[in-house]
Write a structure and sequence with these properties.
- There is one protein chain.
- By secondary structure, this protein is α+β, with helices and mostly antiparallel strands.
- It contains eight helices and four strands.
- The chain has two domains: about 100 residues, Peroxidase, domain 1; about 70 residues, 3-Layer(aba) Sandwich (Glutaredoxin).
- The protein has a four-stranded mixed sheet.
- The termini are far apart.
């Protein structure tokens, strides 16, 4: 069976069930945590997705880590994936779940890059302004890049709002070179 078809089917079933049980956003949070862990912690991913550990051991480890904080539906879903030996698809299933829930709940993901570290208050204000402008909820991550010199670059759904000094300087430089 096609890998994409497997991951989409599992994700779609989970999202529909979570929606029916009115726990969609709680499950969204759980899947976000699981996906982040799978993509950012190689040891965690290797132990869960790899073949070295038996399914019972994988379930035990997952229950140890997440039983107190995850929605019971999410835990049952993960158990289903592991007991059906589909754990190698888990990162893709999680990614598909997140994408489906974002579309369903009209959540956009965005990233804002500042030239200098800024306070959370400014990040929240910019987030609120862009939420009003786009008419969508936004999950926003932020980072710093001193090469921007000043200002910020905001990226959301493939669109970029560039208010950086470095870009302004580059524009001026191109204009001067044309003359």
């Amino acid at each position: 069976m096609d890998t994409n078809r497997v991951t989409v089917r599992y994700a779609k079933a989970f999202v529909e069930l979570a929606s029916e049980e009115d726990v969609l956003m709680e499950c969204y949070h759980d899947i976000s945590v699981l996906y982040y862990s799978l993509t950012n912690y190689q040891g965690f991913r290797d132990s869960l997705v790899g073949q070295k550990m038996m399914a019972d051991e994988k379930l035990g480890r997952l229950n140890e880590m997440f039983a107190d904080s995850f929605q019971p539906l999410t835990l049952r879903f993960i158990q289903l994936i592991v007991t059906n030996y589909r754990y190698q698809y888990l990162p893709d299933i999680c990614r598909n779940c997140l994408d489906m829930i974002r579309r369903k709940e009209q959540i956009s993901t965005g990233k804002i890059v500042f030239a200098q570290p800024v306070g959370q208050k400014l990040v929240d204000e910019l987030k609120e302004k862009f939420q009003k402008k786009t008419q969508r909820n936004i999950e926003l991550s932020s980072e710093t890049d001193s090469s921007l010199i000043g200002g910020f670059i905001f990226t959301i759904d493939g669109m970029q709002y560039d208010a950086s000094i470095a870009t302004r300087f580059a524009t001026i430089k191109k204009q001067l070179q044309k003359k």
